[in-house]
Write a structure and sequence with these properties.
The protein has 392 residues and is of the alpha/beta class. The protein has 2 domains: 132 residues, Aspartate Aminotransferase, domain 1 (Alpha-Beta Complex); 240 residues, Aspartate Aminotransferase, domain 2, CATH 3.40.640. Helices cover 41% and strands 15% of the residues. The chain has 13 helices and 15 strands. It has a 7-stranded mixed sheet, sandwiched between helices. A hairpin with a 7-residue loop joins β11 and β12. It starts with 14 loop residues before the first helix and ends with a helix.
Length: 392
């Protein structure tokens, strides 16, 4: 794959590239925010979609045995996780699946815990469904984020937590949780009868020597207490095809989860999403290997740029993800001032850290899943703006 290729995505109704007016962003800002990639997907996916498109018939579709086997095969090859067809439920996306889990396993007013700064739809889902949001804030220490396990258990006890939404690997801080960390969280939750929804959508984006651990696969005792959310959308840039896989080992829990979608008459069954996912999981191994290496090179380029030209700006070294958590606090700007500076001076559209929680104040999230030339352009725009304001 040629990940250096510039793919013009303008005038394609792309939220990332054409959403400026909709999001009240200046038209000349370079978008490096929302989590989709500027890379073309696996060639076999394009071929499969072309074949279906040329058929001219796009009726109702269901998950074939070949579809399930492609998911099973990917999890076995890439993550050494053996799963069964009976454990898999499709849904329109991971955020939708989080909503379904909250509806299925909690009641109005129940407490649901997350770990900010974290992917902001977690909080939105909890609040919009009128549950009580509880935060076990991550601790930034020695240039890395860690879990406060004393507070973790205290919050569960004090608030009678019913559900814990885990982000693994963690978006936006880039942590790939260790076996010990995952086991401690799960053991505490099981001790207090807390169900875990583990969002593992970024499982395929991990940099060496780190390795993603499937939470539910760490211990036989976890199978009745963990729901695993996965999707091909980030890995293969298929977000617009609206398909994810929820994997639930406990069939009583799966029945409750499936009922939410049945009651809403919402069934994945997206013919293009199904065929694309199958092709990606069957043929995408080399693509992902090459892409993760390219992303790591992009990361090293960005890190070196900041260290050379503006050491006040620091990357929180990610262990995974193509989303980089960047510390701008030494510039001395308040959040609104920083946002305005980036949009009006640097002409960059990034994710403001505070949308992930107040713990993100002074940070920005930058999407590096783009050709190197785009990153170089963005960094030079930032550097010029910083020099103009005598900030570096």
């Amino acid at each position: 794959m040629n990940f250096n290729k510039i793919n013009d995505r303008k005038n394609t109704h792309s939220i990332k590239w054409d959403g400026h007016t909709k999001m009240n962003i200046p038209d000349d800002c370079l978008p490096m925010w929302v989590a989709d990639m500027d890379f073309q997907t696996v060639p076999e996916v394009i071929e499969a979609l072309n074949n279906l498109a040329h058929s001219g018939i796009y009726g109702y579709a269901f998950e074939s045995d070949e579809y399930f086997q492609s998911v099973i095969g990917w999890m076995k090859r890439r993550h050494q996780w053996t799963i069964l067809k009976e454990w898999i439920s499709t849904s329109p996306g991971v955020v939708s699946a989080i909503h379904a889990c909250i509806l299925a396993f909690t009641q109005l007013g129940d407490a649901v815990m997350i770990q900010k700064p974290v992917y902001h739809p977690f909080a939105h889902s909890i609040n919009s469904l009128e549950r009580k949001l509880i935060n076990n804030a991550l601790v930034y220490k020695d240039d890395q984020y860690i879990i406060d396990f004393v507070d973790f258990e205290k919050q569960i006890i004090d608030n009678s937590i019913k559900l814990f939404i885990l982000c693994s690997p963690h978006n936006p801080v880039g942590r790939v949780w260790t076996t010990d960390e995952l086991t401690m969280m799960a053991d505490i939750c099981i001790k207090h009868n807390v169900l875990i929804v583990s969002d593992e959508i970024h499982m395929d984006f991990v940099f060496k020597p780190y390795r993603h651990q499937i939470l539910v696969d760490l211990n036989e005792n976890f199978k009745d207490h963990v729901i695993t959310l996965t999707a091909p959308s980030k890995t293969f840039n298929l977000a617009g095809l609206k398909l994810s896989n929820t994997i639930i080992l406990n069939q009583k829990l799966k029945k409750k989860y499936d009922k939410v979608y049945d009651d809403l008459s919402v069934h994945a069954g997206h013919s293009f999403g199904l065929i694309a996912t199958q092709a990606a999981y069957e043929h995408g191994d080399a693509y992902v290997d090459e892409m993760v290496d390219y992303l790591h090179e992009n990361l090293m380029f960005m890190d070196g740029f900041f260290k050379e030209h503006c050491p006040k700006i620091k990357i929180i070294q990610p262990q995974g993800l193509y989303l980089v958590w960047v510390d701008f606090r030494e510039l001395g700007m308040k959040d609104r001032e920083l946002k305005s500076f980036l949009l009006t001076k640097a002409k960059l559209w990034l994710n403001d850290g505070v949308i992930f929680g107040r713990e993100g104040s002074g940070f920005q999230r930058i999407n590096i899943a783009t050709p190197r030339a785009t990153i170089e352009k963005a960094l030079n725009q930032l550097l010029s703006a910083l020099k103009e304001e005598n900030l570096c």
